[in-house]
Amino acid sequence: DIQMTQSPSSLSASVGDRVTITCRASQTISNYLNWYQQKPGKAPNLLIYAASRLQSGVPSRFSGSGSGTDFTLTISNLQPEDFATYYCQQSYSNLPYTFGQGTKLEIK
Amino acid sequence: VQLAESGGGLVKPGGSLRLSCAASGFPFTNVWVNWVRQSPGKGLEWLGRIEREAEGGTSHYAASVKGRFTISRDDSKNMVYLQMNSLKSEDTAVYFCAALLGVDMYNWFDPWGQGTLVTVSS
Questions:
Q1: From the candidates B49, B109, B117, which should be mutated to test the interface with A, based on the most A CB atoms within 10 A?
Q2: 3-state secondary structure of B37
Q3: Which range among A27-36, A53-62, B62-71, B96-105 shows the weakest confidence by mean pLDDT?
Q4: Residue A5: CB atoms within 10 Å
Q5: What was the pLDDT predicted at B103?
Q6: Of A6, A48, B13, B121, which has the maximum CB count within 10 A?
Q7: DSSP labels for A7-72?
Q8: Region B23-29: what's the mean pLDDT?
Q9: Which residue numbers in chain A have pLDDT < 70?
Q10: Dihedral, CA atoms, B35, A73, A105, A39, nearest 10 degrees?
Q11: Cβ partners under 8 Å of residue B83, min gap 6
């Protein structure tokens, strides 16, 4: 199985800040990497697919980059509604699909 | 485009439960449907999927549930089911169904249902 490791596990930031979350795959996955946002009691919501393509309707302050084994999710100009948990997920191997352990973004 | 799970609840260890996933608003027959769970306070775990009937409707499972869980679909009702047998305490989680969509060679989980809570406890 492809292991996905996110860092940090948690992060404190203020409204208006820029934050970066990292996701590392245990083997190369090209750019088959998705990012999701999850708020408490809700299902995950797709933000980015193919490592850098913004899902329709997602604000442009979200961006993704990377290829191979190392990926980043950057949120610029943090807004109050961005405080949530973020997950990466690889779609390179579909047996099984695997997620990172999550990064909780909290208000400082 | 919506998915909605139902059927969660409290079950004793060793017991069984069947979850349902109802789809509306899109051509359900054309999508792979997946089940993903989230244990309390933990991350997301892919459990399995069922492929399109046109491709044989094959199901695949994560090692953690293989042999205990079975996914089936009834496209005439726009429904997918997760039959869970021999339940253990560690199966306690919120269970989500999610469609697999994509473009080019890329795919992702979207939409997701709202989740249904399964608690395995005596």
A1: B109
A2: strand
A3: B96-105
A4: 13
A5: 85
A6: A48
A7: E-SEEEE-TT--EEEEEEESS--TT-EEEEEE-TTS--EEEEETTTEEPTT--TTEEEEEETTEEE
A8: 85
A9: none
A10: -30
A11: B16, B18, B69, B70, B71, B72
Residues 24-63 (A) with a CB less than 8 A from some CB of B? 32, 34, 36, 42-46, 49-50, 53, 55
- Return the amino acid letter for A64: G
Coil, strand or helix: which one is B102?
A: strand
Whole-angstrom distance between the N-terminal and C-terminal Cα of chain A?
36
Instruction: State the Cα–Cα distance between residues A35 and A50, nearest whole angstrom.
Output: 9
- Report the C-alpha gap between B61 and B50 in whole angstroms: 9
